[in-house]
Task: structure prediction
Amino acid sequence: MTPARLEHLLLLEQSGELTPTRRRALDAELAANPDARRLCDELRGLARAIPPAPGPSPDAAARIAARLATAARPRPAFHPAWKPALAAAAALALLLGIQLFRAGSPSSETQLARSETPAANDSSTADDWTDPLADDFTELENLLTALSAEDPFGFAEL
Amino acid sequence: MDPTDAALLAAWRRGDAEALGQLVGRYKRPLFSFLHRFASDPGQADEWFQETWVRAIRHMNLFRQRNFSGWLFRIAHNLIIDQARRRKPDGSLDAPLPDSGIFLGDTIPAATLSPALEAGGRDLGRQIEAAVNALPLEQREVFWLRMDSGLPFKEIARLQRTSVNTALARMQYALEKLRKALGPAYRELQETAP
Result:
């Protein structure tokens, strides 16, 4: 048996992974060969000569638990059912806004009539385009505020 | 997973704080010892030890192995490899050389062997540590996992994603280099055997 093969078997013997057939071959070699026994002693001596490593800090387990607790802090739960509800609410708000905008805006005839009086047109144009929008935004804000106050779907967390 | 490991983990999840301590205590010696051999200082070994446990428990959904020990050492191995790659950004130590079956990491010369041995002084144990620390990463890992943490070659091979024969060959490379590095001191080892 070559020294490399012998060492191979000795290593497997030490780790408890030697098959019965190989064990018989190794035992026979150790019985017959003094060099084999010397190599076996070297390997055992090597394992004994290694200085033991220190242990972890005494509070390691507590620190691990603390880190796991931090990592497991509850995050806002994700419910896919929110998405359609949110989309429906947004669509409703948009529709209401458009409806209110149309109801509050002047007709085309009125606008045409006003365009014939430039002096009045200058002052009224700003009113026509600012007031309805402000009203619409107020309506939208009110709607969203109402939804947030009730918060049936947890919109605030979004 | 060992039924007792599973029971301890389940107990901890139900709020039993001591269960985690028992589970950590069960594996602390071989696991910490392994990490300690690759850490730059005890503080880093402690940090890696905690990180290994946190990752192991947090990612239990990815746990596919039968034994919890293998799962822990797999994570510890990854931490060490990540650290080594940060130090050596070029090339993969796991890359096999063409037509040889030998891995790149096995061929890195032990350039710091002599100074490390001198630093080890006359204490044989310290000389062994210094000589092993000068080995290529894969050989060093096999050496410590086998000689210190007590893992069988089958499990070491699984950790390194290689064959049992390659793991054994790495161990034999390591022993050969130790013999050369330690010289007469290595022969003293047979006198320390019972």
Remarks:
- The first helix of chain B runs from residue 3 to 13.
